[in-house]
Amino acid sequence: MRLLAKSNLVKLGLVALTALGTAQAVYAADDDSAVNASPEQQAAKMIENRQALFKVINYNSDLYYSMLKNKIPFDAPTVAKAAGRIEVLAAMIPDMFATDTRKVTGTKTRAREGIWTNAADYKAKSDELVKAAQQLGAAAKSGDKAATYKVARVLGNACSGCHDNYRDK
Ligand code: HEC
Questions:
Q1: Is 20 exposed, middle or buried (0-12, 13-18, 19+ CB in 10 A)?
Q2: How confident is the model at residue 36 (pLDDT cuts 50, 70, 90)?
């Protein structure tokens, strides 16, 4: 410490304070949207959140989609990784629809009202995807290509089975 001139210490302190200020500013921005938002704004935000969830689910199923089309070779670890992620993400679907957003206007959504009038069935459809993802992970880890592709198609049916009933075209 003795080696540091006092002015250097002051500079260090200023740098630390600036960093803290930035962190607080970022925190305040998040805080605004989460806490100070009106119920309508929060519901609109939930629409964006769930759409983001599906985008990430889709990103992961795309990781092996070209394998099913025989465009790239079977790669068991990639399928296992994607399946593990989809399992975790799919388990979030019911949470992401806990907020009834039917009255929200101004945010585009393809969600159908049955999600809230038929909530138990919607949850069952979400569970189907979780289960298919678990099975896909197990099949991929076994290294059996045919079994893995078979389960991957079952998983694909879990997506379309829900979309057919609960997502607008
Ligand atoms: C339990 C029902 C359910 C399951 C299972 C499901 N989805 Fe969806 N998905 C929806 C609903 C509802 C929407 C519309 C969300 C909205 O617009 O608010 C949607 C939207 C999407 C979107 C569009 C996201 C956007 O707005 O950009 C994609 C892509 C998608 N799903 C892919 C998938 C894939 C891939 C799977 C299977 C691995 C899957 N979904 C499984 C219900 C489901």
A1: exposed
A2: confident
Look at residue 18 in the predicted model and tell me its pLDDT. Answer: 55
Cα distance between residue 65 and residue 53, in whole Å? 18
| Contact between residue 75 and residue 145 where contact means Cβ atoms under 8 Å apart | no
> Residue 20: what pLDDT?
52
Ligand 1, pocket residues at CB < 6 Å: 47, 50-51, 54-55, 57-58, 61, 86, 93, 109-111, 122, 125-126, 129, 158-159, 162-163, 166-167
Distance CA 47, CA 111 (A): 9
60-82 burial code (b ≥16 CB/10 A, e <16): bbebbeebbeeeeebebeebbbb
